[in-house]
Amino acid sequence: MTNHYEVALYGEFYAQDLKAVLNRITLHSESATRMHTREVVFEPIDATQQREAGQDPILLRCKKDLSEPRAGWVMFCYLKPESVRQHPEATVRPWATCQVMTGDALSFASALGYVRRTQVYKKGYSFRRGHLLIQMFQQEQVDPKTQKPIPAHADTLWEVEVKTANPVRNTQETPLSASIDAILEVQLLMKGLLDLRRQDV
């Protein structure tokens, strides 16, 4: 069985550089839309015991596009990134994803024996470049009473994720090297304005 992978690079910049970064990414992208998403991260009930035993628990992530009223939940998980020796240029990690067509993904995750760990709202812009997705966003805080997002402060750091839009199989037809090369093209395009780098979190 062939694993599916995500290939990604990450960066961040200050709000004062927003216009310049936005213009450059827009110039080299095929489409651009506003984005507003909610992501809830779950961990296994026995995550603490797994960590004490030296294992990395598999986290479930439930994501919903808030800018599209009819959008359903997407549930996905990542495994541990491949070693830096194997892929020094970009973060490459096994990735599984599924659409939750009906019902509530959060209840479904709980039924699988997972408990909620964190929740985050992301608001900004989403771009497509070939088979890559470029997301540029600020994280919003969560109101503890309503669980609704609180708009980010104007000075909040902007984050950028450049990644494969869909899971990639490492085959002769779709080698991982092609996705890594596409990601590195974006890194080169943003040089001098935005430092995109590998991240193993």
UniProtKB/TrEMBL annotation:
GO molecular function, one term: transcription coregulator activity
Record's keyword annotation contains Transcription regulation: yes
General function of this protein: Component of the Mediator complex, a coactivator involved in the regulated transcription of nearly all RNA polymerase II-dependent genes. Mediator functions as a bridge to convey information from gene-specific regulatory proteins to the basal RNA polymerase II transcription machinery. Mediator is recruited to promoters by direct interactions with regulatory proteins and serves as a scaffold for the assembly of a functional preinitiation complex with RNA polymerase II and the general transcription factors.
Location in the cell: Nucleus
Record's GO cellular component terms: core mediator complex; mediator complex
Family note: Belongs to the Mediator complex subunit 18 family.
Keyword annotations from UniProtKB, A to Z: Activator, Nucleus, Transcription, Transcription regulation
Protein name as it appears in the record: Mediator of RNA polymerase II transcription subunit 18
Broad class of where this protein is predominantly found: nucleus
UniProt keyword annotation of Nucleus present: yes
Subunit structure: Component of the Mediator complex.
Family annotation (InterPro entries): Mediator_Med18
